[in-house]
Specification:
Length: 388
C-alpha cells in the first residue's frame, strides 16, 4: 500500500551568534524580512522571513523577555530564539538540510528541536484495511487501542448513520499527541495546501474518488527522547534525522509502535496479548528507534506540603483512627517529607521535634474478676486504676 511519511511542523530552539544583526544578515543573503507589529508572551520581537517577493520561508521569535543570568532567575538564556519553518518547507524531501541552512543564514546555532509533527498519509493501511473501518471499529469497541486512554472522537450523522472523521488521543500538552483523521476533508474545510496535494500525486494517490487519511504525532518535551536500538543510547530527535524520507519514516514507525497500536477485542485474553493490527510497515530494519516511556511529572512542592500537613493532622485524630492507623499515616507523611527534601521546611513549621509521633491514648480497662483467697468471707475493696 502507498504511504507517504512527512514532517508537518518543525520548530527549533537556537542561540543567536554574538554581535550580529539578524535582519541585516538575512537581507544581505537575499531574504526579505518583515518585523511584525505584535509579540508573544515569551519574545519581544517576531521576524517574518520571505524568499523572493511573497514566498514565506520561516519565522523567528527573538529577544526573550525573561533572560537568565548569574544573578537572575530568568527563563531563557541571552540570545535565545525560536525558528519555525513554513509548512511548505516541511514537505521537501531533505527538510533537515533546509532547516540547517535557514539557521545558518540567520546566524544562529541550533540547540534542539522544540516541536516536531511527524505524519503518515495514506488511503489504505499497510494491511489493506480502510481507515474508516478502523475508526468505526474503535468507536464500536471491536478494536481496542493500547496506551493513551483519553480520546476525543469527532464525526457527523448522515441519513441515520454515524460517520467518524477524526479521533484524537492524549492532549495538546502531552509529550506525544496523536491524531488520526481524514486529511483531505480537513484541507477542504480549512485550507487547501497545494504542496501536500503534489506529494499525494507523486505517491500515485487516487484523488478523484478516494479520501486521504493521516496519522500524526505532535512531539515535544520528553517525547523527543529516543532509544537507539543498535547502540542502546538515549538521544533526542535532531535536525539531522530529517534529511531523508527513510529517516523520517523510521522516526514515525518508532512512534507508531508505541502510540498507535490497536488490537482485536477479545475478552478471553488481556488487551496486550490480543492480536495486533499491522497498520504500518513494522519491519525491524525500518524501526531504528524506540520512544522512551512517558515519565509522570512530579507534584509541586506546594502540593507536597499540603499533603504532608493533611496526613499529620489526620494522624492526630485519635477519635477517628486507631493507634495503628495513625502510625501508618504519620509514617507516610515522614516518607513524603524525606523523599521531597522537606526537612528544613518541616523543622521551620513544626519546630525541632517536627510533628511528634502519635502516642497511644490511655484506656480505662475495668477489672472484672479478682483472683485471690477470700479469708472468712471478708469484704475486699478493689481500687480500679488506669492502665496504659
Amino acid at each position: 500500500m502507498k504511504i507517504g511519511y512527512f514532517v508537518d511542523w518543525l520548530e527549533i530552539y537556537c542561540i543567536e551568534w554574538k554581535d550580529i544583526d539578524i535582519k541585516d544578515r538575512l537581507e544581505k543573503r537575499g531574504y526579505r524580512v518583515e518585523v511584525m507589529p505584535y509579540t508573544t508572551r515569551v519574545y519581544g520581537q517576531i521576524l517574518q522571513v520571505y524568499k523572493g517577493k511573497s514566498e514565506t520561508y520561516f519565522t523567528i521569535c527573538r529577544l526573550p523577555l525573561s533572560v537568565r543570568s548569574n544573578d537572575s532567575s530568568g527563563i531563557l538564556k541571552a540570545g535565545s530564539c525560536h525558528i519555525k519553518l513554513h509548512n511548505h518547507l516541511c514537505y521537501v524531501e531533505n527538510v533537515g538540510a533546509v532547516a540547517m541552512q535557514c539557521c545558518k543564514d540567520a546566524g544562529v546555532t541550533i540547540q534542539n528541536i522544540s516541536r516536531i509533527d511527524l505524519c503518515a498519509d495514506f488511503q489504505y493501511f499497510y494491511n489493506g484495511m480502510h481507515p474508516s473501518t478502523l475508526i468505526k471499529g474503535f468507536a464500536s469497541e471491536k478494536y481496542l487501542k493500547i496506551g493513551q486512554p483519553r480520546f476525543t472522537l469527532h464525526g457527523t450523522t448522515e441519513k441515520g448513520y454515524n460517520y467518524y472523521n477524526s479521533v484524537l488521543f492524549g492532549s495538546k500538552t502531552s509529550s506525544v499527541y496523536t491524531r488520526f483523521y481524514e486529511k483531505s476533508l480537513e484541507m477542504k474545510e480549512v485550507a487547501q495546501k497545494d504542496w501536500i496535494v503534489d506529494c499525494w500525486k507523486d505517491l500515485g494517490f487516487d484523488l478523484e474518488d478516494k479520501q486521504v487519511w493521516r496519522v500524526e504525532f505532535a512531539v515535544h518535551g520528553p517525547g523527543r527522547k529516543m532509544l537507539d536500538r543498535k547502540t542502546a543510547e538515549v538521544q533526542e530527535i535532531t535536525v539531522q534525522d530529517l534529511c531523508s524520507r527513510d529517516r523520517i519514516k523510521a522516526l514515525f514507525i518508532s512512534l507508531a509502535k508505541r502510540y498507535f497500536v490497536f488490537t482485536k477485542a477479545d475478552t478471553a485474553t488481556r488487551k496486550y496479548n490480543q492480536e495486533h493490527l499491522v497498520l504500518f510497515d513494522m519491519n525491524p530494519d525500518v524501526e531504528k528507534y524506540s520512544p522512551l516511556p512517558a515519565v509522570r511529572k512530579t507534584i509541586t512542592t506546594r502540593t507536597t506540603k499540603q499533603v504532608y500537613e493533611y496526613l499529620i493532622k489526620e494522624s492526630e485524630s485519635s477519635h477517628v483512627y486507631s493507634f495503628e492507623e495513625r502510625m501508618r499515616l504519620w509514617r507516610v507523611a515522614k516518607n513524603i517529607a524525606t523523599h521531597h527534601n522537606l526537612r528544613q521546611w518541616v523543622e521551620w513549621k513544626h519546630g525541632p521535634n517536627n510533628a511528634d509521633m502519635p502516642i497511644e491514648e490511655p484506656v480505662n480497662k475495668p477489672i472484672t474478676q479478682v483472683q485471690g483467697h477470700d479469708h472468712d468471707n471478708e469484704n475486699v475493696t478493689i481500687e480500679q486504676k488506669e492502665i496504659w
